[in-house]
UniProtKB/TrEMBL annotation:
<keyword id="KW-0285">Flavoprotein</keyword>
<dbReference type="Pfam" id="PF00724">
    <property type="entry name" value="Oxidored_FMN"/>
</dbReference>
<protein>
    <submittedName>
        <fullName>FAD-dependent oxidoreductase</fullName>
    </submittedName>
</protein>
<dbReference type="Pfam" id="PF07992">
    <property type="entry name" value="Pyr_redox_2"/>
</dbReference>
<dbReference type="InterPro" id="IPR001155">
    <property type="entry name" value="OxRdtase_FMN_N"/>
</dbReference>
<keyword id="KW-0479">Metal-binding</keyword>
<keyword id="KW-0408">Iron</keyword>
<keyword id="KW-0411">Iron-sulfur</keyword>
<feature type="domain" description="FAD/NAD(P)-binding">
    <location>
        <begin position="381"/>
        <end position="611"/>
    </location>
</feature>
<dbReference type="InterPro" id="IPR013785">
    <property type="entry name" value="Aldolase_TIM"/>
</dbReference>
<keyword id="KW-0560">Oxidoreductase</keyword>
<feature type="domain" description="NADH:flavin oxidoreductase/NADH oxidase N-terminal">
    <location>
        <begin position="4"/>
        <end position="335"/>
    </location>
</feature>
<comment type="similarity">
    <text>In the N-terminal section; belongs to the NADH:flavin oxidoreductase/NADH oxidase family.</text>
</comment>
<dbReference type="InterPro" id="IPR023753">
    <property type="entry name" value="FAD/NAD-binding_dom"/>
</dbReference>
<keyword id="KW-0288">FMN</keyword>
<dbReference type="InterPro" id="IPR051793">
    <property type="entry name" value="NADH:flavin_oxidoreductase"/>
</dbReference>
<dbReference type="InterPro" id="IPR036188">
    <property type="entry name" value="FAD/NAD-bd_sf"/>
</dbReference>
Length: 640
C-alpha cells in the first residue's frame, strides 16, 4: 500500500534507508552543562529502533552565549562531544542515520539563562523575549563563525552522519537573513546578498573543518509569517545560494518566535500545510527537500511524496506519539499506530516550563526505560472502573503485563470526556486516540463491561485483587437563581447531542469547555453569548491551542462578555452584572452551563477503607487534563 516512503535516498554521499525523518525538537532531557543523559539516548534510540531513517537531534548550542534552553544539548567543548558517542553508536545499531543540529540563539534567549549579554545583528529586542541585545561587531561575528565550524567538527568526531545548521525560527543565522531583525548597513546588512553573508561564511568554515564530503543540512523558515519578514519569494533565492555553497539538503520549517505557534501548530492547522513551501523550494534546487508540519500518519507522508512536494518527510510530534510508526506502517499494522492529536500539551506545553517533553497519547515518550512494560510476576484480577482515557490506558497496560483485566463503563460507549472533547471544530483528531485505545482493548482481549455501574455488591461478589477507580468528573452547576429552569442545560449534554440548542444561546463560563462549545455552536449558525466571570477566556488552555481558538472566536461574531457575573436566569432572559451595572439579555432560548467540573469519587470514598489495593486516578482524583489522566492510568497499571 505504501511504497514511496520506504524508498532509500541520499543526502550528499549519505544513504538513508527510507524517507521518514525525525526533525529537531528540544526535549529538555539533557544536563545543564550541555552533556546528554541516558534518557536522552533512550529517547532517540526508540525512534531508530522504530524504523525512522534519519534522526536530527535538537539544536545543540555552539557557545554558552548561544543556548536557548536550560536543559538542551551543547557542543562547545570536547566533554560534550564525548557524551554523544554512545548516542550515535546506539542509533547506528538499528540502521538509522543521525545528524546533529547546531545553533546560536542570538536574541531569542535571555541573559538570565546564558549569564551574559545576549547578541544579535542589530540592537532590536525580539518581540517575545523583550531584552535589548548587543549588536555584534565584525570581529565578534568572525568568532561565532569559527565556533559553528568547531561544533560541526566535534559532531563528526562524535559519530554523527551529518550536521544541520539551524537557520530557521528566528535564531541568530535567521536574524541576519531577515530584514525583520537585521538593520545593519555594513557588509552583513542591507541587501539580501549581505544578509546571507553570515550563513555562507558559516557553511564555508564548516566545510573547511569537516571536509567537502561531510553532509551539511540547513533548516530554514520558508516564511517567517510576520510583517516585514522573509517570505517564500525571498527564501527561494536563499536556498539556491545555500545549494551553490555546498549544502546537501534543505529542511523546511516556518516562523520565528513572534509567530511561534505556527512552528508546532496545533490541530486547528491543516495537515501537511508546510508542504506547499517545500514544493516551491523543489522548483529551484536539486538537493533533497525535507518538509514537516502536522504530518501525523504515513498516508499523508506518502501523498506528499507522490505529489512531488518534498523528498523526505519530517514527523516530529508523530515520532513522539509513536516512535514505531515506520515499522508499523511497513508491516501493515496501521490500526496500531498512535497518531498525534495536535494538542501540544506534552511537547510544547512541557518545554515552555523547562520540563522534560512527554506525550498525551504515549506516556513512554521521554521515559522509554522507566516506563517500559514487562510481565508481572504475580498475575492478578484487576478491576478498572471507568472507561475514559485514563481507565482505558490502565486496562491496556495491566493486560499487557499479563493480568486478568475487567474494564467497567456505566454508559454504552467507551471514551469518557474525550467523546465530548472531540466535538468542537478542529478537535476531531482526538477520536483517533479513542479508536486506538478501543482497538488495543479488543486485541488484548480485555473484558469490557458496558452499561455496568460498579457497586459494593458487585465488588464483594467478584473480589478483585486490585481496583483502579477512574470515574471521572461531573459538571458543576453554580448557585445561580433560576439555574434549575427548563431553559438551562449543561455543556456535556450539548456536546453529546443529548439536548438540542435553539437559535439564541448563552453560555455561562468562558473556560476551555465554554469557549469551545461557543465555537461549536457558532459554526453551526447559532447566535452565541459567552459570559465569563474573570477577564480572560480559556485562560487554562495550552497557549498555542488558545491562540488559534481565540482567532476563530474573533471571526464568529460571538458576543463575549468578560468580568461579568450571571445573577438570574428565567423567562427567556438572563440578568448579568458587570462593573456594578446590571444588564438584561433578552430573547435567550437556551442557557448552557460550562462552569467546570468536580471529581466524581463517591464510589472510591465508600470502598477505600475496605479495599487495601485501590487507586484513584484522573479527574476522579482532581480535575485536570487528558495528559494527567493517561499518565496516571499508565503508571497505576505499571505499579501493580
Amino acid at each position: 500500500m505504501l511504497k514511496k516512503v520506504f524508498e532509500p535516498i541520499r543526502i550528499g554521499n549519505l544513504e538513508i534507508k527510507n524517507r521518514f525523518v525525525v526533525p529537531p525538537m528540544v526535549v529538555s532531557l539533557c544536563n545543564e552543562d550541555g552533556t546528554i543523559t541516558e534518557r536522552f539516548i533512550d529517547y532517540h534510540e526508540a525512534k531508530a529502533k522504530g524504523g525512522f531513517g534519519l534522526i536530527v537531534t535538537e539544536n545543540y548550542a555552539i557557545t554558552p552565549a548561544g543556548r536557548g534552553f536550560k536543559y538542551m544539548g551543547c557542543m562547545w567543548n570536547d566533554e560534550q562531544m564525548e557524551s554523544n558517542k554512545e548516542l550515535t553508536k546506539r542509533v547506528h545499531k538499528h540502521g538509522a542515520k543521525i545528524a546533529l543540529q547546531i545553533i546560536h540563539a542570538g536574541r531569542e534567549t535571555s541573559s538570565s539563562l546564558t549569564g551574559m549579554k545576549i547578541v544579535a545583528p542589530s540592537a532590536i529586542p525580539d518581540p517575545v523575549i523583550g531584552e535589548m541585545p548587543h549588536p555584534l561587531t565584525e570581529e565578534e561575528i568572525k568568532v561565532i563563525v569559527e565556533e559553528f565550524g568547531d561544533a560541526a567538527l566535534r559532531a563528526k568526531k562524535a559519530g554523527f552522519d551529518a550536521v544541520e545548521i539551524q537557520g530557521a525560527h528566528g535564531y541568530l543565522i535567521n536574524q541576519f537573513m531577515s530584514p525583520f531583525s537585521n538593520k545593519r548597513v555594513d557588509k552583513y546588512g542591507g541587501n539580501l546578498m549581505n544578509r546571507a553573508r553570515f550563513a555562507l561564511e558559516v557553511i564555508e568554515n564548516i566545510k573547511s573543518k569537516v571536509g567537502e564530503d561531510y553532509p551539511i543540512m540547513y533548516r530554514i523558515s520558508a516564511d517567517e509569517l510576520i510583517e516585514n519578514g522573509l517570505t517564500i519569494e525571498d527564501t527561494k533565492v536563499i536556498v539556491k545560494m545555500l545549494e551553490d555553497a555546498g549544502v546537501s539538503a534543505i529542511d523546511v520549517s516556518v516562523g520565528v518566535y513572534a509567530s511561534g505557534f505556527h512552528i508546532t501548530a496545533p490541530a486547528a492547522v491543516k495537515h501537511g500545510w508546510e508542504a506547499d513551501f517545500a514544493k516551491e523550494f523543489k522548483s529551484v534546487v536539486s538537493i533533497p527537500v525535507i518538509t514537516s508540519g502536522r504530518i501525523n500518519n504515513p498516508f499523508l507522508a506518502e501523498g506528499i511524496l507522490l505529489s512531488e512536494k518534498a523528498d523526505m518527510i519530517g514527523m516530529a510530534r508523530a515520532s513522539l506519539s509513536d516512535p514505531e510508526l515506520p515499522n508499523k506502517a511497513k508491516e501493515g499494522r496501521f490500526d496500531e499506530i498512535i497518531e498525534c492529536i495536535g494538542c501540544r500539551q506534552g511537547c510544547s506545553g512541557m518545554l515552555s516550563k523547562d520540563l522534560p517533553v512527554n506525550c498525551v497519547v504515549n506516556p513512554m515518550t521521554g521515559n522509554e526505560k522507566a516506563l517500559s512494560i514487562s510481565q508481572a510476576e504475580d498475575k492478578k484480577k484487576i478491576f478498572v472502573i471507568g472507561g475514559g482515557p485514563g481507565g482505558m490506558e490502565a486496562a491496556i497496560v495491566a493486560r499487557k503485563r499479563g493480568h486478568e483485566v475487567h474494564l467497567f463503563e456505566k454508559n454504552n460507549e467507551l471514551g469518557g470526556q474525550l467523546l465530548l472533547a472531540s466535538v468542537p471544530p478542529t478537535k476531531s483528531e482526538i477520536t483517533s486516540f479513542v479508536v486506538w485505545q478501543k482497538t488495543q482493548l479488543e486485541k488484548l482481549k480485555v473484558n469490557v463491561h458496558l452499561n455496568t455501574e460498579v457497586d459494593e455488591a458487585l465488588l464483594k461478589k467478584e473480589n478483585p485483587d486490585h481496583i483502579i477507580v477512574a470515574t471521572g468528573a461531573n459538571p458543576f452547576i453554580p448557585p445561580i437563581k433560576g439555574a434549575d429552569s427548563d431553559m438551562v442545560v449543561n455543556s456535556n449534554d450539548v456536546l453529546s447531542s443529548k439536548v438540542e440548542v435553539e437559535q439564541n444561546a448563552l453560555i455561562v463560563g468562558g473556560g476551555l469547555v465554554g469557549a469551545e462549545t461557543a465555537e461549536h455552536l457558532a459554526r453551526h449558525s447559532k447566535n452565541v453569548t459567552l459570559v465569563e466571570l474573570t477577564g480572560e477566556i480559556a485562560r487554562e488552555c495550552e497557549p498555542g491551542v488558545r491562540f488559534f481558538l481565540m482567532e476563530s472566536l474573533d471571526t464568529l461574531n460571538i458576543n463575549i462578555m468578560t468580568n461579568t457575573q450571571v445573577q438570574e436566569i428565567g423567562n427567556n432572559k438572563v440578568v448579568v452584572s458587570s462593573d456594578e451595572e446590571e444588564i438584561v439579555i433578552e430573547n435567550i432560548d437556551t442557557v448552557i452551563m460550562a462552569s467546570g467540573s468536580r471529581p466524581n469519587n463517591k464510589l472510591f470514598e465508600s470502598i477505600k477503607e475496605e479495599y487495601k489495593n485501590i487507586r484513584l486516578i484522573g479527574d476522579s482524583l482532581k480535575v485536570r487534563t487528558i495528559l494527567d489522566a493517561v499518565n496516571e492510568g499508565y503508571k497505576a497499571a505499571l505499579e501493580i
